[in-house]
Design a protein that fits this description.
Layout: H1 9-15, H2 21-28, E1 36-40, H3 46-51, E2 57-62, H4 65-69, E3 77-81, E4 94-100, H5 108-118, E5 119-130, H6 137-150, H7 160-163, E6 174-176, E7 182-188, H8 189-196, H9 200-209, H10 217-223, E8 231-244
Parallel strand pairs: 1-2, 1-4, 2-3, 4-5
Antiparallel strand pairs: 5-8, 6-8, 7-8
Helix pairs in contact: 1-8
């Protein structure tokens, strides 16, 4: 698994979107027991912190120590450095395993083998992702140009799974029908610009050119349509795969 987010761990913790209550309500409605949960590639523990409000014990793993250094702390969350393809947990241990906005980086076969080994027979596996941010027609055109033409070649090949809304990500479980949901906020221009800085392709561009592509043409284009004191409604489409092991 690639570590594309250690360099911007602080920015990631401050400016990445959080998942809506409706998503967790859907997940919890299909849980049979609330003893142990695992959040894989937890980042700063965003999902793990919500799981901790419902489960007796939550394990949360990531390959980035810098991300875990910024993680939300709760008494019943146990963080550890661990790859998604090799768990240190016993068989038939978890009531729920989640991975949010990260599975496209995994070796699918190895990851799912570990999920099937450690998930209880009545446990739930949930994969969550979100697509390209949408705001309004004028800003969307600027985003799309930046995404495709400015930093398009700097995205890792795995990003295509996000563009395809995880339709090409395998899911070897008995799938449960998921609702159509969105992440929605009101953001200032400053928040949006800081969010763009968390994109792995932006960081790849900075590393190669020693300059931030957001601070150049992108910001100037945005300022034509977005006053610095204005808050705009933003939306991310969510995609969810939830299911159980085959009997």
């Amino acid at each position: 698994m690639k570590d594309n987010f250690s360099n911007q761990a602080e920015q990631y913790a401050g400016f990445r979107p959080h998942y809506p209550k409706a998503l967790y309500d859907f997940v919890f409605s299909h849980i049979k027991n609330f003893n142990t949960a695992l959040d894989v590639a937890t980042g700063n523990g965003q999902a793990a912190s919500v799981l901790a409000e419902h489960f007796t014990k939550v394990f949360a793993t990531d390959i980035s120590q810098k991300q875990l250094d910024k993680a939300i702390q709760k008494e019943n969350i146990i963080y550890s450095i661990e790859a998604a393809e090799k768990f240190s947990f016993p068989n038939d241990y978890f009531d729920l395993i989640t991975v949010a906005q990260a599975i496209h980086w995994f070796d699918f076969d190895k990851f799912y083998a570990e999920v099937k080994r450690t998930l209880k027979d009545d446990g739930l596996m949930v994969v969550i992702g979100y697509g390209l941010i949408r705001i309004d027609d004028e800003v969307n055109r600027t985003i799309d140009h930046f995404y495709t033409n400015v930093i398009g070649s700097y995205w890792d090949k795995e990003r295509k799974h996000v563009d395809e809304e995880y339709r090409t990500v395998p899911f070897p479980f008995i799938e449960i029908e998921s609702p159509k949901l969105f992440i929605e906020y009101e953001w200032t221009l400053d928040h949006f610009v800081n969010y763009l800085g968390t994109w792995s392709a932006v960081q790849h561009f900075i590393k190669e050119h020693n300059s931030n592509p957001v601070d150049c043409e992108m910001l100037q284009s945005l300022q034509l349509h977005w006053d610095t004191t204005e808050k705009k409604k933003i939306s991310f489409p969510l995609f969810i795969k939830a299911g159980r092991k085959a009997e």
